[in-house]
Model the fold of this input.
Amino acid sequence: MKTNNFSGPPPEHIAFIMDGNGRWAKKRGLPRTAGHKEGAKVLRRVIRDLDDIGVKYATFYAFSTENWKRSDDEVSALMKLLEDNLDDLVNYEKENIRLRFIGGRERLSEVLQKKMADAEKKSLDHTGMTVTLAINYGGRDDIVRAAKKASELVSEGFLKPDDLDEAAFEKLLQTEDIPPVDLMVRTGGELRISNFLIWQISYAELYFTDTLWCDFSKSDLMKAVDSFSSRNRRFGDAK
Done:
């Protein structure tokens, strides 16, 4: 049974920038990898909390195209964490949750690519909340990939330039079957979107919190949703 203890309906689609894992670990004298492991546990709980309150779509920034700039040790540890924990992380059989992944897979290991494909296939017919994990994802990269697809379609005669409007272009993005983001939440105190879902958050409400991702509780989630519910979304209308 879905629970709703806040004013107004929840956002249909919430996107999360899960920031602060390294700082959480540092505060405790632990290696950054310990923070990422804890962050994975929090991700599982937040997904269940979102499902519980009736959110239909949730997208999580797990690894950006810029994260490759981190130290080789940290990148290797993050990739190993994804490989080792993906099976457990995406096991939502009882919850009827559908799993998707966005981002370029060509730089990921064959093991991780296979696990991602298997998780998508296994949950393809699930009719509950859709959870998308962005791995090796960048908003600019997403738009460039869509532009290349459009160029190919035009050159092959499947698309006329005059027919390429916003709606048609949106279908070429990696989020083609997901509605635009209603609320974007960033933890960790930073006030930027960091190349995340640039097109998809055009009219999203933004919510920033100093709470580190590893400390992000259901109470923190409800505060974000309450903030969203209290806002007047005009979409350019003067009303």
Remarks:
- The chain has a mean pLDDT of 91.
- Helices lie at 21-27, 32-53, 72-89, 110-122, 139-155, 166-170, 218-229.
- The longest strand covers residues 57-64.
- Residues 32-53 form the longest helix (22 residues).
